[in-house]
Design goal:
The chain is mainly alpha-helical. It has one domain: Glycoprotein, Type 4 Pilin, CATH 3.30.700.10. 44% of the residues lie in helices and 6% in strands. It contains two helices and three strands, in the order H-H-E-E-E. A three-stranded antiparallel beta sheet has the order 1-2-3, covered by helices on one side. The longest helix is centred in the N-terminal third of the chain and has 52 residues.
């Protein structure tokens, strides 16, 4: 009877190495399936946030143009207030940055929007002129 009791206690004591490895393999498979999908959503969210930030800056640029008759020479002009406009066009002491913590590029008049301005982010790869750039102009398909 004593031997039987030890056997039952041993069976209930914990997981075997094989059971633990089985669970680890299942978790690995789930991460392999779900992981890339979650990573893609994260990057997509950054692109969406950058586009929203560009729209907010665009609104400030257009307000500046209405008040002053021309587009700002630099984005930093949107942070300054003048006698006619008591408030700055953008809140804060620094210009907003894109989702990769880089400053937006700006040019007025623009090379692409010749009658207004160009604003763009270098995107995830942080390099200008690549396919992942986020711009306020339509990029011609290749």
């Amino acid at each position: 009877m004593i031997g039987s009791h030890k056997l039952n206690a041993r069976k209930r004591g914990g997981f075997t190495f094989l059971e633990i490895m089985f669970v680890v393999v299942i978790i690995g498979i789930l991460l392999a399936i779900v992981g890339p999908k979650l990573a893609g959503k994260s990057e997509k969210a950054r692109v969406t946030a950058t586009k929203a930030q560009m729209q907010a800056i665009g609104t400030a640029i257009k307000s500046f143009e209405v008040d002053n008759g021309s587009y700002p020479k630099e984005l930093s002009d949107l942070l300054e207030s003048d006698d006619d406009n008591k408030e700055a066009y953008l809140d804060g002491k620094a210009l907003p940055k894109d989702a990769w913590d880089k400053e937006f590029n700006y040019k007025a008049p623009g090379d692409h929007n010749k009658k207004s301005y160009d604003i763009w982010s270098n995107g995830p790869d942080k390099e200008e002129g690549t396919e992942d750039d986020i711009t306020n102009w339509a990029v011609a398909p290749k």
